[in-house]
């Protein structure tokens, strides 16, 4: 599931937080960099909770929000969702090859290491 710009900004704040945040806390952080209404932040967090992207816990009269997944898990899910929409195995492989062609040497090394760990092999 793709996120809009404001949703990504909200998620960035939640991922960076050491503890669950209230709407007010997220609003204060966002308001340092842009003009934004408290109710807008409340709506975004509510929608993210309905999409199961964040967890909502009641604390008194307020809710506290935490990410439902790490940033890495969410990015991986987005990539898998995108590949899941590709009609054939050949098309998926072509998409993966095209993707890998755009990664840096360090990213390629990380991919190689992950694949080696997954298959139990060791590439030079």
Automatic annotation (TrEMBL):
An example Gene Ontology biological process: negative regulation of DNA-templated transcription
Keywords, comma-separated and alphabetical: DNA-binding, Transcription, Transcription regulation
Gene3D superfamilies linked: 6.10.140.850, Winged helix-like DNA-binding domain superfamily/Winged helix DNA-binding domain (1.10.10.10)
Domain of life: Bacteria
Entries under InterPro entries matching the protein: BlaI_family, WH-like_DNA-bd_sf, WH_DNA-bd_sf
Entries under Pfam families matching the protein: Penicillinase_R
GO molecular function, one term: DNA binding
Family: Belongs to the BlaI transcriptional regulatory family.
Protein name: Putative transcriptional regulator
Organism: Kineococcus rhizosphaerae
